[in-house]
Amino acid sequence: MSDAQHPVAVIGATGQQGSRVVDALRAADQPVRALVRDPGSGRARALQDRGVEVVAADQEDPASLRAALTGVASLFLMTTFEGPDGPDGEVRRGAAVADAAAAAGVPRVVYSSVGGAERGTGIPHFESKRQVEQRLAAVLPATFLRPTFFMENLTGQLAGADGEELVLRLPLPGDVPLQMVAVRDIGTAAARLLVEPAAVEGDAVEIAGDELTMDEAAARVAAVRGRPARYEPLPLDVLGDDEDMRAMFAWFAAPPAYQADLGATRRLVPDVRDLGTWVGEQMAAARAAG
């Protein structure tokens, strides 16, 4: 376990993945330092209320990164290709964090990349994450956590009035298996690796909690929700001129695509969620929210 006197740094702590990493670290009584652009934001203040140290740092400001990363036990990093500069910006920001972490003497980093990053997929935002991996590996000890398709990508499709048939839609044939994982389990796996780097062999692990065709996924959703559901495949043309997403879904459609180590996933996250468990949790959360 990490030295209790030194916090684990989390970049992206107010976002989807980073917040789950914080949850898992705090559940294990690990001190956390959240690096955020705006410490005065509502989400940042909520972290402070939970005992998380919040410091200002910007991936476009190397000096702020070096200062914020000084004295930490380890670092969780995720990057995004979203924004006007796309994958190129993701590479630039990831390199800036890598260099700042090395300059600050960060002992090790866990980087949330993507399943298949190392396999030359040609998908722009997979290739950018691979470049970030390579930069990190060149300057400091790093472990690459490579999640598969997020179950949360289906959240918006689970809504609907009671009794109505649910229709899941993706630009993917219904009979092609797709590995997937819940974001909460990504956070649990990352937290484990941050405090116990020997929890996996080697410097990378691809993780998934389930593997289903979308036809099977619809049947699973129907069984859990107790209402009809079906899957309707869409053509790639629905993605328009988004070459990145077109490349990704074309890759999904020509297996093997994701190649998660399900055994290693379960060793990191013994209660890893399958799709049915995740859907049940979404239903419970919706009921609790009123």
TrEMBL record:
Alphabetical list of PANTHER family matching this protein: NITROGEN METABOLITE REPRESSION PROTEIN NMRA FAMILY MEMBER, NMRA LIKE REDOX SENSOR 1-RELATED
Matching entries from Gene3D superfamilies are given as: NAD(P)-binding Rossmann-like Domain (3.40.50.720), UDP-galactose 4-epimerase, domain 1 (3.90.25.10)
Location of the NmrA-like domain: 7-254
Report which superkingdom the organism of origin falls in: Bacteria
Give the matching InterPro entries: NAD(P)-bd_dom_sf (IPR036291), NmrA-like (IPR008030), NmrA-like_oxidored (IPR051164)
**SUPFAM superfamilies given for it?**
NAD(P)-binding Rossmann-fold domains
Record keyword Lyase present:
no
- What are the protein's UniProt keywords? NADP
Pfam short name (any one): NmrA
Family, according to the entry, reads as follows:
Belongs to the NmrA-type oxidoreductase family.
Name of this protein:
NmrA/HSCARG family protein
